[in-house]
Amino acid sequence: MTAGSHAIKTGTLADARLRRRKDLADLTCDAVLALLLLLFIAPIVWMIVLSFQSDRAIISMFWELDLTLDNVTAILADDQPFRAQLANSLVIVAGTVVLCGIASTLAAYGLSKLRLPWWLTATVGASCAVVPMLPPMALVPGFYVTLIQTGLLGSLAGLIILNTILNLPFATLLMKIGFDEIPPALQEAASIDGASEARSFWTIMLPLVTPSLITSSLFTAIMTWNEFLMGLTMTSGGTTSPLSVGIASLVQPYEVRWGQLSAVGSLAVVPIMIASVLASKRIIAGMTRGSVK
Amino acid sequence: MASVEIHNVQKSYGTLKALHGVSIQIDDGEFVTLVGPSGCGKSTLLRMLAGLEEISGGTIRIAETVVNELPPKDRDIAMVFQNYALYPHMTVAENMGFALKLKNTDKREIQGKVERAARILNLDTLLQRYPRQLSGGQRQRVAMGRAIVRDPKVFLFDEPLSNLDAKLRVSMRAEIKSLHQRLGTTTVYVTHDQVEAMTMADKIVVMRDGVVEQVGAPLALYDSPVNMFVAGFIGSPAMNFLTGEIRDDGFLAGDVRLPLAAPAPELVGRRAVYGVRPEHIGIGEDGVAAEVCVVEPTGAETYLVVRLAGQEVTCVARDRLDVRAGHMVRLSPDPGRIHLFDPQSGRRL
């Protein structure tokens, strides 16, 4: 054997060893991830399974599988408020996404592209960062009084406005990152080409921030769908509240209807889970925009 | 087409003055290059011409009309940006036709103009592509296409070639020049690259720290720079400067006597800076001895960095030389092409 081939063989051996070590590391990593996934998914899967189990099987001392559609038909029955609550949630999410989308886009455009005084930009930027840190409960009294004064207490419009206020700071910051990434030269080129400020916003800026708008809208939708506190405090319950509040109503002092609770829980969780999974790539892309260049 | 008159134009950012009363006359159809180091105010001036920066003082006239207060869209100018500024969500054809679309031009007319410009710039096959699908050179051509489709009074170029590689830069340079010859539109071109300025312009404006140092034809600036800054900025490799004293039989730099065409009697005995371009130093049997420090062969020419009178001097040899660092060579600067400057003010003597 020549020295050259010996070297090659040693190299191959070292490569193989390295590959084996890498395989082992990958395997460990996969196993840990699978375990974590199980940990996160198990309660949700359990909830979905429970929603198709009879109450007897649920509270049984032993593992039982007694499949039934009773829970689902019960919560969708006419005398139950859940269908109305689902519709409420959908309307609130749609309204909030539209209102928050418009407001955050315009605010972010102003912050990013208009030459506003620095103190104004700094104040708005700082409040966008601070407001989400406040405990929402601290805002409830103020919101409550405002909604009474405006006659919006207990209405879907009131909840749409409150959810918009709660989501606006984050959505604005996210949109501002999107606008910041558009080179100023594009706007200048548009103004030289003859576009007015409004025209350049519509035809140049808006199409270019669409990815950010989609991200912030998805985020707003998820947050609004899951919102509980305002739904609870600003409505009188029953058919006026959103689905997130409806779930909690099934936990009563003398009885917990586990099967129905699970069925409503599934109704609330599954759509947003599907949306999140479909949109996860988009959300991560939007969140990390501008972080690495 | 139009003439451009920049009269005593100033620009201030708060207390900071970026332009101190700049005046330039640009004739109809002329290709003018604004050149200078980074931060000299050349891009600011161009942006003021475009209407993208406010004018703090003075007047700018385009085709005899004062445009100080006019928004960019009403100045009838087209600008090519350093980073091209193509609209990423529009195709090449849409990018080029955008300005005409804003003017509510007839669709068929837009298509005709875009196709004509595309033919001129060899973009015919790329009209339906998006900017991200194009190479740097193609994007540059689209940016130029967007400008020429509008048939403006003045073209403004803001360092349009600085993002391209060296080879492409040379070919685009020729393309822009031939485009100007073909269209004859008044052009203002900003660059920090003096080679670009020399090769393309009818007239060069050299700027430094917000002040115009010299305006003139490329070769006039090369042959008669008004001060050491212009002398050092125009020409590559840069002019050599040696400090010493003017004598009636030459120039004394340290203990080395350099050749000089008979100086004016009033200059004899005065301290000065001896400026000589690398290409005006002969290398041969005669002349002053100097030690070679660095040899840089480029193929066509060889650059020698030598030590002369305690200072480093660059010279260019057209022939291939068999010299290495440490060798001695003899240099003979051409006495007819020597520039003398005042060491304090830097002005030409």
Automatic annotation (TrEMBL), chain A:
Record has Nucleotidyltransferase as a keyword: no
Pfam assignment, any one: BPD_transp_1
Domain ABC transmembrane type-1 intervals: 86-279
Main localization, broad class: membrane
Subcellular location: Cell inner membrane; Cell membrane
InterPro entries with a match to the protein in the record: MetI-like (IPR000515), MetI-like_sf (IPR035906)
Topological relation to the membrane, as annotated: Multi-pass membrane protein
Taxonomy, superkingdom: Bacteria
Chain segments annotated as transmembrane: 27-52, 90-111, 118-137, 143-166, 201-225, 258-279
Gene3D superfamilies: MetI-like
Entry keyword set: Cell inner membrane, Cell membrane, Membrane, Transmembrane, Transmembrane helix, Transport
PANTHER family listed in its UniProt record: ABC TRANSPORTER PERMEASE PROTEIN MG189-RELATED-RELATED, SN-GLYCEROL-3-PHOSPHATE TRANSPORT SYSTEM PERMEASE PROTEIN UGPE
Record note on quaternary structure: The complex is composed of two ATP-binding proteins (UgpC), two transmembrane proteins (UgpA and UgpE) and a solute-binding protein (UgpB).
Role description: Part of the ABC transporter complex UgpBAEC involved in sn-glycerol-3-phosphate (G3P) import. Probably responsible for the translocation of the substrate across the membrane.
Family per similarity comment: Belongs to the binding-protein-dependent transport system permease family.
Name of the protein in question: sn-glycerol-3-phosphate transport system permease protein UgpE
Organism this protein belongs to: Shinella yambaruensis
UniProtKB/TrEMBL annotation, chain B:
Keyword Ribonucleoprotein applies: no
A matching Pfam family: OB_MalK
Keyword terms: ATP-binding, Nucleotide-binding, Transport
SMART domains referenced in this protein's UniProt entry, alphabetically: AAA
UniProt-listed SUPFAM superfamilies: MOP-like (SSF50331), P-loop containing nucleoside triphosphate hydrolases (SSF52540)
Any one GO MF annotation of this record: ATP binding
Main subcellular location: membrane
Residues of the ABC transporter domain: 4-234
Residue stretches spanning the membrane: none
Topology in membrane: Peripheral membrane protein
Subcellular location: Cell inner membrane
PANTHER family membership: BLL2173 PROTEIN, MALTODEXTRIN IMPORT ATP-BINDING PROTEIN MSMX
Similarity remark: Belongs to the ABC transporter superfamily.
Name the UniProt record assigns to this protein: Sugar ABC transporter ATP-binding protein
Organism classification: Bacteria, Pseudomonadati, Pseudomonadota, Alphaproteobacteria, Hyphomicrobiales
